[in-house]
Amino acid sequence: MRGVWWDTHAHVMDEAFAPDREAILSRAWDKGLEGIVAVGYDAATSRMALHMAREDPRLHPTLGLHPQQAHRLAQEREALEALAREGTFVAVGETGLDFHYDHPPRALQEEALAFHLELAKQLNLPLIFHVRDAASALLDWIEAHPLPKGGVWHAFTGTREEARRALRLGLYLGVGGILTFKNAQDLRDVVRDLPRDRVVLETDAPYLAPVPYRGKRNEPSYVVETGKLLAQLWNVAPEEVALQTRENARRLFGIHP
Ligand SMILES: [Zn+2]
Asked: Tens digit of pLDDT for each residue in 237-247?
């Protein structure tokens, strides 16, 4: 099937793709992708996403500073604000909270999160959230800080209850390669029962490649593998998953064909 799948979270600007970026993108289009959300993780990659999208309108850029980079907020802030004035983006992020390591300090991550919310309000855009060992902290934060256009919990691996809270707060849930991992039965059980109009597919390329590419460099074309597994879980044809998640992605990011 051609031109239907969406990868809603790919770092196609990453150095990992420097040697063969063009080939990776052609492979994605050949495999039946219609759109890729090119997610910035600092000012330089957000700028690159914007420039790549000007060359190819099937790429949709976002601007943000990854929570693991929150300690660079002071240096990055101005460049991100300038970019927000200069270009058209489909979302702000990825931002979020990552408490897996003690770095960067939580207070700084929360300051960066607040900065992203201000940008999202200015630009009237959804937010892309990275969440690691911080689900209740992030959900509490969103509860206290209403979002202008909703957002997505990317690489969702939460529990049923966390999913319920996220859905109540208006979030979409981004499902990626982890869904295909052998040890992810709990996640499959949660995703099976999610409302189908609130799920989007993603790769997080170059990270988190789905089976059968697990451990290798991930790329947008592999989103189809995750989509096929989701089709099994939902007991529908892959085409139906592609159409449903495409509609969800377009609604989330305000993209009108
Ligand atoms: Zn990411």
From this structure: 999 999 999 99
Domain 5-253 indexed as CATH 1.20.1290.10:
no
Encoding tokens for residue 186? 């709990």
Cα 110 to middle of ligand 1, angstroms? 18
For the chain, the farthest-separated pair of C-alpha atoms sits apart, in whole angstroms, at 48
pTM of this prediction exceeds 0.85: yes
pLDDT band at 212 (very low <50, low <70, confident <90, very high): very high
What is the 64 CA–ligand 1 centroid distance (Å)?
10
Whether 2 shows a pLDDT value over 80: the answer reads no
Cα dihedral 211, 215, 221, 222, rounded to 10, equals 20
Q: What would the pLDDT profile of 176-195 be if each residue is shown by its tens digit?
A: 999 999 999 999 999 999 99
Gap from CA of 145 to ligand 1 centroid (Å): 22
pLDDT tens-digit readout, 18-50: 999 999 999 999 999 999 999 999 999 999 999
- Tell how far the Cα of 39 is from the centroid of ligand 1, in angstroms: 7
DSSP string over 86-148: HS--SEEEEEEEE-SSS-S-HHHHHHHHHHHHHHHHHHT--EEEEEES-HHHHHHHHHHS--S
Q: Where are the domains of the chain?
A: 5-253
